[in-house]
Amino acid sequence: GPMFDWEDPLATKTLLTEEELAISETAERYCQERMLPRVLQAYRDEHYDAAILTEMGELGLLGANLEGYGCAGVSTVASGLITRAVERVDSGYRSGMSVQSSLVMGGIHAFGSTEQKERFLPSMAQGKMLGCFGLTEPNHGSDPGSMEATARPHPSKSGYVLLSGAKTWITNSPIADVLMVWAKMQETGKIRGFLVERKNCPTGTLETPPIKNKNGLRASITGMIQLDDCPVPLANMFPDVEGLSGPFTCLNSARMGIAFGVMGALEDCLARARTYALERRQFKNNPIAKYQLVQKKLSDAATDASYGVLAAIQVSRLKDEGKATPEMISLIKRQNCDRALVNARTLQEIFGGNAVSDEYAIGRHVANLFVTQTYEGQSDIHSLILGRAITGIQAFV
Ligand code: TGC
Ligand code: FAD
């Protein structure tokens, strides 16, 4: 008869195609063999190895669900399985990939002109050109609609605007070649998206200082974007999209990736806690895994991880059929991030004092998972998005 597999309690593998299983195996192998050995030192040194994006590009893992322009064109489930494999190692590595793949490549694919797509996507898919996504500002995080960054007509150069403003907490900004910046047109107040190419920015008009000494997501690089009358050609503006639906469309796909990804981090916490509980002995030489309170912690984590993966698969399938709504994505982003954080924090207790040693990885996951619950819409913001959909009353303002 069928056997229970604690690593896949609800047999979600049966929902995957042959191709999806193969992609997942490729990604898991790369992540375990090539990424995992680097992460401990990278986290200690607060160092992001940009070569990771080039390596992922070589394997076809960047922008994997996009069609054409050198991208693999796989299903949303397959691309979710990639994020899960990456985040099993570290949320910061998944973050670097999400920004490149979902936010920047996804945005260009959805809103770019043919010329923009041809210019940026193939080298981004190879990880040779790196991107970042600038929406959040020092004074406007949960409420990006109130952003202050502006684009004003260039006083002397026709076909150009001057971008000014500050973006903060921007993943990959210090290493990005192309910076997707959302700003309001000075004349209309409408939000538009710009592809700022670092190599074309005159000295002093673009700075991207790193934000150092983070207590989470330390294997990822984060910075600001400071623009001071930076000249950008209108050919680098998304031609048709106006308003928040531009950045939010990019976020839909990134939030989906996070919902899948954080389950990888939780599954890693579970696997490590299980191994530890079977090896560690206390009271009459019993493995602590024998004790009921420890078993409950493992059961809770396995249950939430399997429900989370199942829900992520369902919403991904609906997305590919054109039937997913943003509220569904808010639902799984909120739930999976919250449950990953709560369970990781509880599993941490199983390690006793050793939880405090970074060698055991659990503390790193817990610190990272706090960030996943905060960015791309903090969980309470997603509660309000859902609350609005349930009641018809918006509670933001
Ligand atoms: P609201 O009135 O709700 O909407 C304004 C316009 O946007 C459209 N829209 C969407 N379109 C597509 N997808 C969605 N999910 C959409 N949500 C809204 C909406 O239809 C409307 O369009 P139009 O044409 O009528 O103008 O806007 P609001 O200002 O009331 O928004 C409220 C709220 C709270 C929902 C929103 O502001 C929000 O989601 N806040 C959270 C901010 C956020 O998620 N920031 C993320 C920054 S990027 C990031 O964190 C990257 S981390 C990457 C990593 O390292 O992994
Ligand atoms: P605030 O908006 O000030 O919120 C603070 C608290 O108040 C939250 O708990 C929030 O839920 C609550 N709150 C706010 N308004 C309400 C309300 N109406 N009702 C109830 N509660 C409310 N942004 C980018 O654009 N690009 C990136 O690449 C990026 N990467 C990031 C990487 C890291 C490591 C981090 C930490 C952040 C990153 N962000 C990025 C920014 C992230 O999206 C924001 O931090 C997030 O949207 C929250 O905004 P805030 O920090 O300004 O918090």
Uncertain runs: none
The ligands found in this model are:
3-thiaglutaryl-CoA, flavin-adenine dinucleotide
> Helicity range of the residues?
40-55%
SSE run: HHHHHEEEEEEEHEEHHHH
- Hey, roughly how much beta strand do the residues contain? 5-15%
- For the termini, the CA-CA separation is 55 Å
**Inertia-based shape:** globular
- Taking all Cα atoms into account, the compactness measure Rg is 21 Å
Total of DSSP H or I helical runs spanning 4+ residues? 10
Give the tally of β-strands: 9
Label the structural class: alpha+beta
Main β sheet profile: 7 strands, mixed
Mean residue pLDDT: 97
Domain Acyl-CoA dehydrogenase/oxidase N-terminal: 17-128
Protein name: glutaryl-CoA dehydrogenase (ETF)
Subcellular location: Mitochondrion matrix
Domain Acyl-CoA oxidase/dehydrogenase middle: 132-230
Can you walk me through this structure?
InterPro entries: Acyl-CoA_Oxase/DH_mid-dom, Acyl-CoA_Oxase/DH_mid-dom_sf, AcylCo_DH-like_C, AcylCo_DH/oxidase_C, AcylCoA_DH/ox_N, AcylCoA_DH/ox_N_sf, AcylCoA_DH/oxidase_NM_dom_sf, Glutaryl-CoA_DH_mitochondrial. Its EC number is 1.3.8.6. The model has no long low-confidence stretch (mean pLDDT 97). The chain is globular and about 80 Å long. Strands 1, 2, 3, 4, 5, 6 and 7 form a 7-stranded mixed sheet that branches. It has helices spanning 18-45, 51-58, 76-89, 91-111, 114-125, 245-279, 292-320, 326-347, 362-374, 379-391; strands spanning 131-134, 150-153, 160-171, 178-185, 191-197, 206-207, 222-233, 281-282, 286-287. By secondary structure, it is of the alpha+beta class. The termini are far apart. A hairpin with a 3-residue loop joins strand 8 and strand 9 (286-287). Flavin-adenine dinucleotide binds at residues 99, 133-136, 141-142, 169-171, 217, 222, 371, 374-376, 378, 380-381, 384, 396.
